Amino acid sequence: MRNVDSTRHVCGQSLFVDDIVSPQGTLYGYVFYSSIAHGKILSIDFEEALSVQGVKGIISAKDIPGENQIGGIVQDEDLFAEETVHFIGHPIALVIAETFLQAHDAAKKIKCVFEKLPAVFDPREAAKKGDLIIPPRIFELGNINKAWGKCDYIFEGTVENGGQEHLYLETQATFAFPAEGGGIKIISSTQGPTTVQRTAARVLDLPMHKIEVDVTRLGGGFGGKEDQATAWAIMAALAALKLNKPVKIILPRQEDIRITGKRHPYSSDFKIGLTKKGKILAYEVTYYQNAGAAADLSPAILDRTLFHCTNSYFIPNVKATALSCKTNLTPFTAFRGFGGPQGMFVIESAIYKAAKGLGLDPSEIQKINLLNEGNEFPYGQKTLNCNIGNCFAGVEDKYKPKEVFDRIRGFNSKNKLVKKGAAIMPVTFGISFTTTFLNQASALLHIYTDGSVSISSAAIEMGQGVNEKLRNIAANELSINIERIRIDSTNTSRVSNTSATAASKGTDLNGFAVIDACKILTERLKKIAADELKLNKISRIKLKDEIIYYKDTKTALTFTRLVNIAYQKRISLTAQAHHSTPDIYFNTKTNKGKPFAYHSYGVGLVEVTLDCLRGIYEVDSVKVVHDFGDTINRTIDLGQAEGGIVQGIGWMTMEELKWNSEGKLLTDALSTYKIPDIHAVPKEMKIHFLENASNPFGPNKSKAIGEPPLMYGIGVYFALMNAMKAFKPNLEINFSAPLTPEKVLLTLYNTPKHQEKG
Amino acid sequence: MINFILNDLNISTDLPPTIVLLDFIRKEKMLTGTKEGCREGDCGACTVLLGELVKGTVKYKSVNSCLMPLGDASGKHVVTVEGINQKELSPVQATMVDEGGTQCGFCTPGFVVSMTGYFLNCSNLNTDDAIESLGGNICRCTGYGGIKRAASDSISIFENGKSDNGNHLENLISLKFIPDYFRGIKKRLEKISTNHKSVEKKSNVIISGGTDLYVQRWESLVGSKGNLISQNKKLSGISRIGKQINIGSAATIEEIKTSKLLQKYFPKWNNYLDLFGSLPIRNRATIGGNIVNASPIGDMVNILLALNSTVHLKDGKKKRSILLKNFYKGYKSLDKKKNEIVDKITFLTPSKNSLFNFEKISKRTYLDIASVNSSVYAESKSGKISNIHISAGGVAPIPLYLNNTCNYLKNKTIDTETIRNAAEISLKEISPISDARGSAEYKSLLLRQLFYAHFIKLFPQLVDPEKLL
After folding, report:
1. Neighboring chain B residues of A464 at a CB cutoff of 8 Å
2. Helix %, strand %, coil % for chain A, to 5?
3. Residues of chain B with CATH 3.10.20.30
4. Parallel, antiparallel, or unpaired: how do β-strands B2-6 and B77-79 relate?
């Protein structure tokens, strides 16, 4: 059966927020925002803007009936700036007009006078000044101070990584309709409908039950609509309530890139200690996270950096310190990997530097330090069903990395201007929200009298295929034709108190909730079947392929008939189930516990070719053995792996956020911020599904897949380093991602002025 | 009235010709399959097909509807994803679903339209070309794996299913690549009146392909009185008269790229122009627009500078000519009067003992604007340069002709030392600035490298890369 969402997509029939038919009288909002990075608003004059034809109003902080506060983890973010602006793009007002162009035109006529204040853009500078979002976080294992003495070699270094723009193809979008009784309905392109609802309640001073948030699908999220969709949704709601008209806000691409949050840039220091043979004994690391001007999700992201500071390796002595530094850039936010990639990039850099120091290939150090069953992570959890070794062995067996390295050595000795490089990238990623209480979800399941089934859950479909996976799960559980099942929109009136669809947990949490709801209904239906068939052993009744079986023998009773009998007998054909991940906990004082339901594992082998004359490169191949558990849907999982890899490669290579000295983003359009196109992807991508990998902690023994593959992209960085080193053996080893053609060329030809920071 | 066919529907509209086709499709016709992703021709979510009568057949090309003035649809067949939909999925649609070529679905209609356009345009199918036709479409979800597999599978479906005696269009219809109404489009286009008023007498702006103008100032162009010149037949065409090549200012980059005449003189011509924008951009962008746009990093201008081209301007009956290298006066400032338009561009056919090379480096190889580009045209005899023209883009406020460097190289014999000296001279002629496309330091280094690349490539026997680097 074809994926029903995909089928609509290819016909252009899937409705995104801007595709919904606008009722007559719909107004359009345009955000007016700060043009300076830090300063006081001395005066603001809307008069001329208000006189523009079609303009219906301008709302700002003074129009807010409730609190001017949208901060989640930390209460430090206003919806509209009042006295002070903290970054270029900080919203100040919303212009509402009959057309988008009128609103846009009017916004240009707002006269806002600022007094500039000193601005900080460098996280280390912010840390020095003590401008931290939260107090420093420290994870420790063993005894780092004692360990250094046992090491034969110690290497230190600095690592810079850039941010990353999500570049979901559908920009931030929201449509708000006034509802009766002073309520509001918000259609939003958000990963977190409850976040929108809760925050709107606070800003609008309404009880949550008067706010309905509905989400059909997102044109891509990647974390960029977890917290960052909220502001626009509330602005539209505020305007709709004030003007009593539907109000739509669709951010134009350039505004979306300029003013919304992105992946965090980090600057980090590492110190790694090893034995002669390359066994890692000690690892100390300090992360300076550039959080931007407000907390957003930064503290949670900071924690995940710490959770993944040792990636796939067992290191007995670890001290990892993380600082979330407040700067005058747009508040950085969730992005696929959620701080994990930043943590992994640093440990891989440390291993690379150590390997070059020891005269080893980095893969040798990687291999002998891989996690084994029962090894302890710095946060206290021990590995269970650890598959990293199996994945590594799988890569060795299938893709023969040793032969690849040899072939490359041969190639490089024969070619002067073109060099090849290869690298291995292991990935171990913990699955669960590390904020334990978020690991809950619900599902609401209706069976209608024609036998069709509607499921509502907390999951948001954003391309990751959760809807189809939930259909697969329900069809399997109810043993009915998948065509009967429809996944409804995610709606706060149908499913309450949802966690955002994030942390790769959408299918796990909602899948289990769907299974539970299906079980409730099948149990109910079996009882009725027993009555109907006059059988007393309910345990021997089975629903299979839409037929009721007794002791493995077909009866004449069908699913639809049974449903109708239930209805006639006045039995509810609706079930609601709530699922929470069992047996996870984390103590944020000791920073120990068991935060993850399980881990996801995989290993990738990357090969690149570098044009050393021009400084440009191609990714020849990415070959992976990945642990998908028992896959629920192979096409979807393969797509998640391939898509994640390419996004990770983009982050490591061409995706570059550049700000000028005033904190203005220079790469604020698709013409300057480049993501991989169809030519830029690896010429060959091989994804092998690890065998015998049933996961007892996932729905239908599956594993989460959303985030982990992104981190294979990190391998491209080190493959390129190797290619560069082949051209220039005395290459000074610096770690600064993305490794753009610019950085490559400047590094190869070593112009001393060059001190680019990610 | 602007008359055209939108999918299966005849359209007559008196809306301003300067509104963009995308807004007409989405807002006026409520066909929401076509998406707005960037409004700068860089994502392809708004891709539609434009069918035009050419020598008795309908030729389709993909275009970015976000950058195309509605007036230019006059007399054409505009195809959106809805115009491809049939009762069952087309092979392109079905393989996109089955191979995981779609995830969030926002970019997907653009891919389906581009890929269908590839099948409409080409009967000699191969996966590489099919992928090339998708160069203007960006997907953030899939990593393109599923999309490539879908392209390959679709080709197999066509090859295995086509009837050898059927014509290409009939094959596409019978295999459900396109609905059968396509069969009648030719006759319907022949009947459509195209004499709408695209030229406003008191126009305040001249719009050619619009691929840059609508990016720069969409808001002010929409609904304005624009003079749409890209469909002006008098300004089109590529020809050779004696030793002179003439390119009409409304010739599109794709026409120039695929010109057999130009490919004959420049064997790598097609490869050079692969690096210009994307197929839908090249299908609309014109050479005249590329010249007056005056971008210091224009690719076509860079090539034309090294061919020592001449720009021919006209204002009604008044005509004059100027060497392209003298046409640029400063950043976005031209030796052109307000009412003058570029009529054509000309250059001499390359001599037998000449060599040509074009180099372009950008952050992303395809569909990106150059950090630095450079072209060289050199005539030489046994290693001695008799005539040379070199251009450099992205290193000055104007598309630069490297005057001093060329003077230095004239009558010199090529060797490693000469090239090193020439490169040093070139670096004194430039004034790069740091911006989103690279630091000034990088651009200088890059120009040097591209300069070296020219001569390593063109004179491999005379230049030793080991010594040069």
Report:
1. 103
2. 35, 25, 40
3. 2-83+185-227
4. parallel
Residue A535, class by beta-carbon neighbours within 10 Å (0-12 exposed, 13-18 middle, 19+ buried)? middle
Q: CA of B314 to nearest chain A CA: how many angstroms apart?
A: 32
Identity of the residue numbered B251: A
ipTM topping 0.95: yes
3-state secondary structure of B231: coil
**A638 in contact with B at a CB cutoff of 8 Å?**
yes
**Minimal CA–CA distance to A296: which of A166, A134, A188, A162?**
A134
Numbered ranges of CATH 1.10.150.120 in chain B? 91-178
* Full pLDDT tens readout for chain B, 469 residues: 999 999 999 999 999 999 999 999 999 999 999 999 999 999 999 999 999 999 999 999 999 999 999 999 999 999 999 999 999 999 999 999 999 999 999 999 999 999 999 999 988 999 999 999 999 999 999 999 999 999 999 999 999 999 988 799 999 999 999 999 999 999 999 999 776 555 545 677 899 999 999 999 999 999 888 899 998 989 999 999 999 999 999 999 999 999 999 999 999 999 999 999 999 999 999 999 999 999 999 999 999 999 999 999 999 899 999 999 999 999 999 999 988 999 999 999 999 999 999 999 999 999 999 999 999 999 999 899 999 999 999 999 999 999 999 999 999 999 999 999 999 999 999 999 999 999 999 999 999 999 999 999 999 999 999 899 8
Look at domain B2-83+185-227 and name its CATH class: alpha beta
Contact A114, A92 (CB under 8 A): no
Q: Token pair of B356, please?
A: 């040509």
Distance of alpha carbon B96 from the chain centroid:
27
Contact residues, chain A, for B466 at CB < 8 Å: 416
Decide if B140 and A167 are in contact by the 8 Å CB cutoff. yes
User: Min CA distance, B201 vs chain A (Å)?
Assistant: 26
Please name the residues in contact with A441: beta carbons below 8 A apart, sequence gap of 6 or more. Answer: A457, A458, A459, A498, A499, A509, A510, A512, A513, A578, A579
- Structural domains in chain A? 4-118+166-259 (3.90.1170.50), 266-434+589-748 (3.30.365.10), 440-580 (3.30.365.10)
CA dist A409 and A413 (Å) reads 6
Q: Name chain A contacts of B36, Cβ cutoff 8 Å.
A: 18
Q: Which residues of A touch B468 (CB under 8 A)?
A: none
In sequence order, what are the residues at sequence separation of 6 or more whose Cβ sits closer than 8 angstroms to the Cβ of residue A202? Answer: A66, A67, A69, A70
Domain with CATH 3.30.465.10 in chain B: 232-469
* Closest approach of A585 to chain B, Cα-based (Å): 33
Residues 6+ apart with CB under 8 A from A51: none
Could A678 and B35 be called an inter-chain contact, meaning their C-beta atoms sit closer than 8 Å? no
CB contact under 8 Å between B81 and A680, yes or no, is no
Q: What is the DSSP string of A294-356?
A: S-TTHHHHHHHHHHTTTTTB--SEEEEEEEEEE-SSPPP---TTTTHHHHHHHHHHHHHHHHH
Instruction: Please provide the CATH number assigned to the domain covering B232-469.
Output: 3.30.465.10
Helices A634-652 and A714-727 cross at an angle (nearest 10°) of: 50
Identify the closest residue of chain B to A668 by CA–CA distance: B436
| DSSP for residue A89 | T
Interface test with B, best of A251, A632, A678, A753 (most B CBs within 10 A): A678
Six token digits for residue B107: 């970019």
Q: How many CB pairs lie under 8 A apart between chains A and B?
A: 247
Nearest beta carbon to residue B465 from set A16, A417, A658: A417
Class assignment of domain B91-178? Answer: mainly alpha
Cis preceding linkage at B69, omega within 30? no
Distance from CA of A338 to the nearest CA of B (A): 17
Q: Is A539 helix (H, G, I), strand (E, B) or coil?
A: helix
